[in-house]
Amino acid sequence: AGHARSSEAQRLVERGFLEAVVRGRPPRTLPAALQQGQHGRIPAMAFQVAKEAIAHGPVLVQVARPGHAPALACSTCGERARCRRCQGPLRRARADASPSCAWCGAVHAAWAC
User: For the whole model, what pTM was predicted?
Assistant: First the structure.
């Protein structure tokens, strides 16, 4: 809440992931994108809790910026990508970068689940 929206919040309003709250009129429904099951990176349990809580008042959901993933996981089975050296989580500094370990820094260019 504030006197002005950040540029990131405005972008999410324009994309339909957030709904603008006008003073005195809190939303009582989920945004259209969420109603259609397009909840993206929101974990299923968090989405279900938010869906139930929206009936009682506004719900705030914060997610990382688009393109940012704190750790990698297999797109098929969901298993977290782990370092072969220390078992730390793998991540990418940029979208075009090879996966590297967040703990020891080892690069795993050919990582596969």
Answer: 0.40
